[in-house]
């Protein structure tokens, strides 16, 4: 029995990391991730490829979860670090619950890296990426955000500036480029969980978990915002549900690759778009709700003359889910083609998305994650059966040699 327990321990240490998708394979199985945090910047895929965040700067450790003075934040707080004009790779020294008094305006060339601890942004305002570039947000649990009033807020080392009220989005990306949001968990916001608007482009949203929310993700804020015509966004390896109603995403204009995501029973629809978008749905798993009136994945505005191109390729449809194509075959520019993630078979989505959301681990070990969403129940069962079979084999071998 001691030999068997030793085998189990070695298996956990050597094989506990089961990274499946190409982003996670780049870094998660390396036990020295905590000593080499900036290697994460080499792993972004999709349209945000090349985003380095704060890799060119020093590592800054947040030690204080307070947010008492938004105009003159204390050193040691997330607001102080995120508002600096120089590149910074921001980490946290312990588990934290941060309640933001007003929106947190994140400056360019930043990485907010929550790996190794539990960082919640909740019950207050949220993150705003306003006319910035080169930002990575990784490993935050953002939930129960609320609207907050206009305020004078620190946005750098200079004098604070007046800012409008915020709507309670989880993360607002406004007029920004080269943005990567990865392995975050979102739920229960007052507005959208992630909004990308006003000419933002070169964005990747990957490995995130979205649940229990109405208007989940907005990519393109209004029909009048023609600057969104050049928007390019990758939505990859995410889990939507349970409890998501609509907008996963809702898009305008632009070019959108939605690849290898798991959709777990929306309430109204999954994907919506207007103003002639190009939507490529590739290798996703769509599980429709039981409601016979909500089986359709897509939703179009009845009076919208600019239907655009909607194309499903290699998607898996369960429980009556259906995707309506339109607009014929897409004609991709070299830039669009070059920014695409190669889709894997939809049957592999449970494995590819099994670790969506905030990860858990300890320094010195590969990154692992507690399983916790219904899209992967079948995959978990297969792993459990495989483990049981291996255990039986090991017992037989031990009995024969003892």
UniProtKB/TrEMBL annotation:
Cofactor binding annotation: Binds 1 Ca(2+) ion. Required for its activity.
Residue span(s) of domain Pectate lyase: 95-292
Cofactor(s) this protein requires: Ca(2+)
Reaction(s) catalysed by this chain's protein: Eliminative cleavage of (1->4)-alpha-D-galacturonan to give oligosaccharides with 4-deoxy-alpha-D-galact-4-enuronosyl groups at their non-reducing ends
Protein purpose: Has pectate lyase activity.
Keyword Transferase annotated: no
Protein name, entry field: Pectate lyase
């Amino acid at each position: 029995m001691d030999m068997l327990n030793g085998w189990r321990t070695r298996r956990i240490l050597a094989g506990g990391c089961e990274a499946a998708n190409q982003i996670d394979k780049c870094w998660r199985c390396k036990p020295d991730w905590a000593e080499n945090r900036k290697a994460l910047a080499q792993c972004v895929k999709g349209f945000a490829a090349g985003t380095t965040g704060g890799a060119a700067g020093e590592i800054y450790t947040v030690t204080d979860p307070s947010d008492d003075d938004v105009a003159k934040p204390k050193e040691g707080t997330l607001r102080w670090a995120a508002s600096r004009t120089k590149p910074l790779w921001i980490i946290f020294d312990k588990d934290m619950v941060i309640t933001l008094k007003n929106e947190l305006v994140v400056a360019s060339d930043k990485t907010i890296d929550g790996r190794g601890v539990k960082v919640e942004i909740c019950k207050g305002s949220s993150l705003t990426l306003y006319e910035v570039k080169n930002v990575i947000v990784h490993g935050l649990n953002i939930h129960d955000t609320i609207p907050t009033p206009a305020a004078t807020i620190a946005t750098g080392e200079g004098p604070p500036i007046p800012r409008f009220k915020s709507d309670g989005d989880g993360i607002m990306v406004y007029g920004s480029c080269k943005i990567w949001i990865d392995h975050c968990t979102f739920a229960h916001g007052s507005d959208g969980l992630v909004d990308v608007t006003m000419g933002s482009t070169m964005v990747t949203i990957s490995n995130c978990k979205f649940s229990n929310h109405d208007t989940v993700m907005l990519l393109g804020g209004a029909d009048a915002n023609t600057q969104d015509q050049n928007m390019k966004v990758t939505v990859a390896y995410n889990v939507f549900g349970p409890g998501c109603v609509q907008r996963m995403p809702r898009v305008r204009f632009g070019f959108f690759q939605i690849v290898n995501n798991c959709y777990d029973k929306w309430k109204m629809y999954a994907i919506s778009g207007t103003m002639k978008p190009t939507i490529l749905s590739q290798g996703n798993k769509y599980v429709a709700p039981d409601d016979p009136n909500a089986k359709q994945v897509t939703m179009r505005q009845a009076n919208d003359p600019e239907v655009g191109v909607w194309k499903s390729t290699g998607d898996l449809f369960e429980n009556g889910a259906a995707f309506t194509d339109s607009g014929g075959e897409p004609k991709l520019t070299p830039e669009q083609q070059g920014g695409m993630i190669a889709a894997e078979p939809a049957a592999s989505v449970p494995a590819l998305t099994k670790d969506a959301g905030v990860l858990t681990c300890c320094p010195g070990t590969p990154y692992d994650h507690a399983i916790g969403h219904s899209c992967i129940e079948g995959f978990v069962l297969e792993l459990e059966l495989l483990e049981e079979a291996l255990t039986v084999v090991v017992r037989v071998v031990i009995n024969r040699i003892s």
